[in-house]
Every structure is written in structure tokens, then in C-alpha cells.
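Sample 3 of the quickstart, ligand beta-D-glucopyranose:
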Amino acid sequence: MNNRFCNRLAFLVCLSVCLSTVALAENNQKQDFPWMNKNLSPDERAELVLKQMTLDEKIELLHGNGMAHSENWQMPLTYLANGGAGYVVGVKRLGIPPIWMSDAAYGVRMSAANGRYSTALPSNLGSAASWDPQAACEYGTLIGRELRAQGYNMTLGGGTNITREPRNGRTFEYMGEDPILSGTLVGNRIKCEQAQHVIGDIKHYAVNDQESGRNEVNSIINERALHETDLLAFKIGIDIANPGAVMCSYNAVNGDFACENKYLLTDVLKQNWKFAGFVVSDWGGTHSTLKASAAGLDNEEPLDHFFGPRLKKAVEAGQVPMSQIDDHARRVLRSEFASGIVDYPIKKSVADVEGGLEIARTIEEQSIVLLKNSNNLLPLDRSKVRSIAIIGHNADTGMISGGGSAQVDPPGSTAPAWLAHVWFPTSPLKAVRAMAPSANVKFDSGTNLAAAAALAKSSDVAIIFAHQWISEGMDLPSLSLPDNQDALIAAVAAANPKTIVALETGTVVTMPWIDKVSGVLEVWFAGSKGADAVANVLFGEVNPSAKLPITFPLSEKDLPHTTVTQPPTKGRGPEDESVLTAPTFDVHYDEGLKVGYKWYDAEKKPVLFPFGFGLSYTSYGYSNLKVASGEDTTVTFTVKNTGGRAGQEIAQVYAALPADAGEPPKRLVGWSKVQLNPGESKDVTVSIPAIYLSIYDERSHGWKLVPGSYTFMAGGSASDLPLKQSVSVN
Ligand code: BGC
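Result:
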């Protein structure tokens, strides 16, 4: 070895020792900070850090630093955003990590642009059809794991706006029309997501029920309806999960933009509900500095337009008290501690692809709703069926997914353009061929109606995969299947009545052909393993158990609003909003309490498929209802599997409140998913907390039980409730 080489080697060894000593010292020092003591509560830890922070450091926690992959929303530090939608720098000198936020509605967003992999779960609406808090927990766990694997420590998923307007392009991101079902499921999802040490988020708070003019619309709703419907879903979700963040929505509610709405953010969320986390604005949803900060917005995303230098100046000018800044910063810090992102720093890893696909499949199997099954055509008997026609656009290669910021990118794809229709490589044709290897399975795209009908005619069974794509940023003009698919289904069914329709939809659709087909499966946006799950149901490997979380109306004419109200001009994008100080048009939610099935019930409008409906390959009987009132009301009854297959029944309990309460005819108050072998009976107990039986009283601004007679009903859907008993509450 020559001398120069020895010297260089010595230098490098010394440098690496020195660097590791510095790193170790920094690390040790971090561990020595009093707020690193895990035995202290998140509040205590946050308070200790806050005391050490300068105004600049506090302000840093209150805004984003741009959005990766967005042309308009760039800032000097956006390159550190790890490819995500939002980035908050943290306080390095005090050991407080940055917050790396990613959208993750049904899986982690932007995998293609970031060169990563994400599992697509079934859409949120689809998964709500499982009515299963455990499945919701698995959903959240998987997303939490994949977020961390990709280097994120905060999710922007957790949509729970109840469906007032089924043409809303984001209906697939939400969990249906009932606040108790939606809140329970989103709460369980977020709880388990956060258990993976990511900051959870529930959104879009509140009454963000249409995409048309979403940045300028004013949702007008009375206080009682607001609390009993839209807000109740958030309240339940927040009570279950304690999410680290609530995302305020783009729209205004009763005059004030949601992200500067003191009533929503401070009076209700922080004071009444005692929400301890932080409020993050929807992207570009902040409209002011003083008003928004005073109203309770804590973190502006994705820029620092209002909560950066302007906020600092306002503090220095005495326009914003330091206590207000402290409250904002304390909330961000608290969520960092409560979620564990301080104690469990991010280490990127390889996602468990196989494990994720398995979960996506099993959740989809629990989410597929069997809507029609004439003459028990399903399940198909693979030893008997000789020929099958698979018909539908792309049914040979993939299944459609939901767009917008929820979009998950399929493996093998490049980053899709905004509003592109994205198909996942899960092929119905291949899945059916694998399931029925001895049958002759042929494909037709359905472009030519006569050709599709001819193939159906020459086959034992025809299965049509029909789709309806929806996305953030648009509402549907109608609930009809697009692209002539109604005509396709009618033509195929006329050629072969043994026609089964699998609906890949993001919301409800009308079915003018319903009497002509033998079978209908609602498979939603079915996720990465959708085709296998559908094949498992078609061939009886899985007995369907899911029930609709949303009513399918007979026609758009039956909806509370016959059309979606449009903005006065062409509509503004989020980037325009900084100059908008007031909403430009109103939508009156004057159907009030009557959302979803409550509307059709009250208005006595017949529906295509009711809320809570779903068939099985077996049948169930209900008997023996008993109601006991106490702190919680307890409803007990027996469910029996009266058919020949094992199955799971989602047994539902509804309550009709006393006439004086002025409520729609009934509301869902609980349910239980019961696993039953053929002939087996089980006693089911459903506990109903008092708030689920209460009304929101506008005079006292609180919940109250109305004295009188309550009727409890149990059964298999909102329209099939064979058990009934009334009890008096004084
Ligand atoms: C959406 C949010 C999303 C955010 C960040 C907004 O356009 O409304 O749901 O989390 O963008 O991508």
C-alpha cells in the first residue's frame, strides 16, 4: 500500500467515525429531550415542545410546502415531499419529524409517478357494502402499511360525506347514505390506519355533496339536519378513531367557507366534540388569514399563501394572538405524538404485494352485492355449464377504477392523466376461464350489439361486465349506464335470458333492463383482485353476503333534486380560490333529514333496490325480537339459516321514533353480521347508544331523546323487516 492511499483511508475512516459520532450525539440528544418520554401523554409532550419553539418554527407547522407532481403548487422545498400531496417541515432541531402526506382513499396515490407499487382496494363505497368494521380495519391497516412503506406518515383518505346526491363524482370515495353505517366504518378504518403509525384524516368536513362548482358552492342546510345526518357520520368516525386530522372541505356551509367556518371548526368540532387533532384545509381551500385562523383552521395546504408570512405578520401586528398560533401548533404536534410518527420514524420498505392482493380480494368478496338471481341461476355449476359469453368493454383485460385524487395506479402503468379512465389488470375473462376450465369461454367487447347478442345466443350463459366511471372534479349528468350499455344489455338479454350483469360502478345506476336479465351483481370499483373475487362469487366459491349502503332509485326523477345545481359561470378550480371571499351560488338541501332511504320512505317512492338489500345463495329467517331499554337500548333476536349453504347475514335493526319527534319513518340504529351454517340459529344482540335514538334539538343545540313510543324493527333490509316491537321511553 502506498502512503497516499493510507492517508486517504485514514481520513475516510476518521470522517465516517466523526459523522457517526455526530449522528449518535444528535440521536442521543433527541432521546434525552423530555418530550421523548413515551410515558407522557401526547398533550404533555406537545406542550413541552411548544415551549421551546420560536414563532417561525410554529408557523412552519401551519402550512404546506407545495404538492409534488403539481405544476401550479410548487415551493422551494417541494422536492422533499417524497412525491406526496403535502409536506410540513417539522422541527428538526427538536426531533419533530416532517409530515409527509399522501392521498390514500382506496390505496396510496401516485405510485406510477413515484416509481412505486400500491394495492387498490375496492372503492370505499364498495367496501361499505360489507357493513363490516373488521373488514374496514383490515382496509385501514393495509393502507397504513403501504403508506409507511412508501415513506409517508399521514394519509389523506377517510372520506365520509354521506350521499345526498348520488350523481356526485366522489360517491365512490364515501361510504353511502347512512351516517351511522358510514361513521362506524370510516372510524374503524382510520383507527387501524393510525395503528400503523400514520396520522389519520377524516374528510371533507362538511356537506361537500357535489363536485359541480365545489370551490364556490354554498351548501344551505338547517342546524338539525346538519347534525343528524352529515355531521353525525363525522362525529361517530371521530369518536371511534380520534383521527389526527380533519380536512375541511372546499364548499361553504350556510354562508362561510368550510375552512373558515367558526361554527363547524371551533364551536362544533373542537369545543362540542372535543376534537384534539388539527384541521387541515382541502388543497387550495383556504380563503383568508385572519378569518380562517380565528375560525379554527390549523394547517393550510398545500401552500403558505395565507398561513405563512402573512400569518407571521398578523401575529407581529397583534392581529392574531400568540395563544391562537400556539393552539394551531400544539394540535399538529399532538397528532404527531398521538399517531406515533415521532416514536416510530419512517423506514421505507418493500410493500407486501402478495399479502395486499389477498386482502383486496377478500374485502371485495365481502363487498359484492347480489341484487338479482332468478331461478337460482347463480352460482354457476362449473361441471354443467358448457359455454359462457363474457361481454363488455375491456372485460378481457381489466376492471375500471375511480379517478381524481383517489386514483390508485395499476402496476405496469405510467402516471395517468387527470380524469383518465384507468383500468386495473384484473381480467374477468381470465378469471372465469380459470374457474371453468372445461367450459368454452368466449369474449365480445359489446361494441357491436348484434355480434354480442349472437355470441350470447350461442352460449349457455352470458355475463356482461358493464361499467360507469366517475371521478373527483365532475358529477354525472345522469344515473344511466354510459356508452349505450343499456341497449347492449337489453340486446344480449333478448338473445339469451340467462344473462348476468356485473356492474362496475362508482355510484348507483338505473336498470331499465332489470326484468329481462336473470342475474345482477353490484361489484363496484373492485380493486386489484376484483376479477378473482367476482369469479369466486359467480361460481359459488364465496356465498355473497354484502348489502347495499345506498338506495338504488328507479329513476333520477325520484331523487330529492332532479338535477345537480350548476355554478353561475364555468366553475372555478381550487387554484383560483385565493381571491374568492364569498361563495357564488347556493344549493338548498331542503330535503333536510330525508337522506337516502329516509327520503324514499317518507315520500313513499318505490325504489329499484332498497338500502340494506342483498341476496345470498342461502336464505335466513328472523324470530323472537326482544327490546330492553337501559343506558343503551338492547335489541335481541334470532337469525336462522333456512337454506342449504353456510353464509353470513347482515341483520339490521331500524327504529321509528315517536311521532312528536318529526323524523322520517325510520332510521338504521345497528346491525350484526352473523355467520351461520345450514340450519343453524344464533341469537343476535344489538346495542343501541342513546344518541342513535335521539334528535338534535335546535333550541338547546344538543341531542335529546323524545319521550314516547319507539318501534324497533329487525330484518334483512330497510324494506324487509319482519320483526317489530314497540317500547315506551319517558
Ligand atoms: C381533494 C382532496 C385531496 C387533495 C390532495 C383535493 O383536490 O379534494 O380530497 O386530499 O386534493 O390531493
